[in-house]
Amino acid sequence: MSGLDSPETRTRNLLHVLDVDDLDGARTTEDVFVGLSERQPRGRVFGGQVLAQAIIAANRTVEPDRTIHSLHGYFLRPGDSEKPITYGVERLRDGRSFSARRAHAYQNGAPILSMITSFQTEDEGVDHQEEMPDVPGPESLPTTADLLAGLDHPMARKWSDDRPFDIRHLDGGVYLRPDPGRPASQAVWMRTHGPMPDDQSLHRAALAYATDFTILESILRRHGLAWSTPGVSFASLDHAMWWHRPVRVDDWLLYVQASPSASGSRGLGIGRIFSRDGALVATVAQEGMVRVPPGTGD
């Protein structure tokens, strides 16, 4: 197995990307951090990477007993994957139980992401959740590498060889071919390829990273599209996320997704994430731009 394909290597690369540099405590009116960019075949920074790095940067400015429980962010400009990203974190409020932070990601002096995050100390209270659907386990499903084996395509190699998460679709992927059934929903199992450190803040940031991979695929399925459909363009516009319970991204997680609406070249994706033992650990919402050439899809 090559170093590129090694599960340990992919997890180490993820940890390296998430380890933003605080520049020895550099500050202006904000706390300043710098993160490396993962190279991408099309030269655009992966949105999940920016979300995760911004979370880590904001987390570095709060007390250690406070973990992120929500974020609301807007992707403002495409990022250049050949360049590092500067993060500025503004300390909005530190209350008795909650801390609020605003994080901006900058390239070339302009923001590419603007995000508000909230952190909370652990607390007790009312507790209920939606039940996890009964679905086949991940061991019975093909990997992305299995689905794309033998294909000489730059994005196919990226999807199968470089992703730090093992993602397994319950109904087959829509990487190269559309779903003939056209459901506005799907589910995937996902986890990191290798073990992660016992740091809940790191696991939550890594989960945000992973949620951006497939959240728009329910839109593609509903309209007979695939990621490789000629002339189709996609972009994440905003991202909201709520963490409900502790999570480990190196254990299997079920990511159940649906699209309640698409119109005006935009589509909305909603996701619920369950641990393998049935705990609802997070909820995600993202609106994305989906533009198709005339006569493509429906």
Descriptive notes:
This protein is an alpha+beta fold. The chain is built from 6 helices and 11 strands. It has a single domain (7-122, 139-291), classed as Beta Barrel (Porin). It has helices spanning 7-18, 47-59, 144-147, 154-162, 200-211, 217-222; strands at residues 31-35, 66-75, 85-94, 98-107, 110-121, 165-169, 185-192, 233-243, 253-263, 266-275, 280-291. Strands 1-3-4-5-2-8-11-10-9-7-6 form an 11-stranded antiparallel beta sheet. A hairpin with a 4-residue loop joins β10 (266-275) and β11 (280-291). α2 (47-59) runs antiparallel to α5. It is globular and about 50 Å long. Pfam families: 4HBT_3, Acyl_CoA_thio. Homotetramer. Belongs to the C/M/P thioester hydrolase family.
List the helices and strands and how they pair.
Layout: H1 7-18, E1 31-35, H2 47-59, E2 66-75, E3 85-94, E4 98-107, E5 110-121, H3 144-147, H4 154-162, E6 165-169, E7 185-192, H5 200-211, H6 217-222, E8 233-243, E9 253-263, E10 266-275, E11 280-291
Antiparallel strand pairs: 1-3, 2-5, 2-8, 3-4, 4-5, 6-7, 7-9, 8-11, 9-10, 10-11
Helix pairs in contact: 2-5
GO biological process, one term: fatty acid catabolic process
Subunit structure: Homotetramer.
Organism: Tersicoccus phoenicis
